[in-house]
Each structure stands twice: as C-alpha cells, then as structure tokens.
Amino acid sequence: MRRLFASASLALLFLFGACAQADERELSVETQEGAVHRFTVELALTPDEQRRGLMYREELAEDGGMLFFYAACAPAHFWMMNTYIPLDMIFIEADGRIARIAEMTVPETLDVHDSGVPVNGVLEVKGGLTRRLGIAEGDFVRHPWFGEGGEATCG
Question: Which of 12, 60, 79, 114 is the most buried (most CB within 10 A)?
C-alpha cells in the first residue's frame, strides 16, 4: 500500500510540475487598445540558454518566441550574431510593462540592442510582428514572472 501511495504521489508531483512549466510557456501581450495576443514561448533560463537564444534558427512561428528572465532588474543588451532571422526584441519591466521594442533587428550582426532601462525580461518574437499586431511600448506582457505576484523585482 505504501508503495502504491508513493508511486501515486510521485506521479501527481510530476504532473503538477509539468503543468506549472507548461503554464510558464504561455503568455499574452495586452495592448493599450484592449487587444490580447497569445504566444507559446521557449524559456531561456540558464546562462547557456540565454547566450544561445534563437541563434541558428531558420524559422519562428507567428505565435512563438523566446522569453528571457532575470532575477533582478538590470539593463539588457542583445545582438544578432549567428541569428538567421530578423527578430523584434521586447524589453519588459518587473510589472510586465513593455519598456522598449527593438524592431526588425538585422540578422547576423553585432549591432547592440539595449533595453534603455533596467528590465527583468526580454521577449523575442518574429521580426515585424509587433508592428503588425499593434504591440507598443507601454503595453503589458502577462506572464507569471511579471506583475503583481510575479517573480520579478526591481529596487
């Protein structure tokens, strides 16, 4: 009986862990006009994942992207070396507010794209998508890491 209970407990922990991680892969962007755009993102959590980012990719889904998270606010600096597709880089403050967007970054360059202010995260999406969807500075990224109750802190 103990073995059955232990197995069932492990299965539930695995299931809840998988669900929590799946929830973190879903985010939305709410525009000031009230539109909501949903994305399924890859998470860049480790230093290696953050260094690699979307390098060497030849395509990116319209509703896809990569989300970078930083435990403390800091200026963020990105470049496009070994990145084959243009990207829009959305720099996110701790409350989820979009501080800056670097649109249509040029692939395979060392041009630096910076946040301009300390941020807790960066969302990379397909180049030109923010303009097509009307996503702008001041809009909000809704994700468990940002906003009230989120993991992000500044100050």
Answer: 60
